[in-house]
Design brief:
Blueprint (H helix, E strand, L loop, with lengths): L10 H9 L4 H13 L1 H22 L5 E3 L1 H9 L4 E6 L4 E4 L7 E7 L7 E7 L5 E9 L6 E7 H5 L4 E9 L5 E10 L7
Parallel strand pairs: 2-4, 3-9
Antiparallel strand pairs: 1-7, 4-7, 5-6, 5-8, 8-9
Length: 190
């Protein structure tokens, strides 16, 4: 085994390999590299350890923010219960979290051409801030940004309407979309 890799596998590819999201041929190629490369194999072990920790943190209600589709898929395969909402710019979607929902995820679709990083601002009535993420990277080819919030937090919210504003950051700063989540509180008779 080599200790220093001359051609290290990228972190995103290692994450995709770990989560099982690579095509068979690509996975075989990565696997062959990992058998011969101690450096990349160690990095993969670290990713696996982090992934297990993230699933545990999500169950504890401690994961929020922008996440990748690969990470979401892996957490679901590990048994995390996810309530999922998909929105396009200008849409309003009714939402709620139910007992057993570990995580609530909103898929925010938009035109991401030329966009490298995004900012997300979540506000309630009267422009009260419910959270903000600045300069977040995302998988542009997925055509979505995934925003995750602990299910326990959503269950404890009163009925309200949340506005999610997704903005391209950097030189191409522009609003990519505004989305509304019409939240119904758990005690509102659902």
């Amino acid at each position: 085994m080599t200790m220093d890799c001359d051609a290290p596998i990228g972190d995103e590819t290692l994450l995709d390999y770990w989560s099982g999201d690579l095509a068979a041929g690509e996975a075989d190629r990565i696997e062959q590299h990992l058998f011969a490369c101690g450096d990349c194999a160690t990095r993969l072990e670290n990713i696996a350890a982090i992934g297990a920790g993230i699933a545990r943190l999500a169950r504890e209600g401690r994961v929020s923010g922008i996440i990748s589709r690969t990470l979401l898929n892996r957490m679901q395969r590990d048994g995390l219960h996810v309530r999922f909402y998909s929105l396009r710019p200008g849409e309003t979607v009714p939402c709620a979290a139910f007992p057993g929902d570990d995580l609530v995820v909103a898929s925010l679709r938009a035109d991401f051409e030329g966009v490298q990083t995004v900012a997300l601002k979540v506000t309630g009535p009267g422009d009260v801030s419910f959270g903000e993420v600045e300069e977040a990277s995302f998988a542009r080819e997925d055509g979505e940004v995934l925003w995750a919030t602990p299910g326990s937090l959503v269950r404890n919210m009163p009925s309200t309407r949340l506005r999610l504003t997704l903005t391209a950051t950097g030189a191409s700063r522009r609003v990519l979309g505004e989305y509304l989540l019409d939240h119904t509180a758990a005690d509102a008779g659902l």
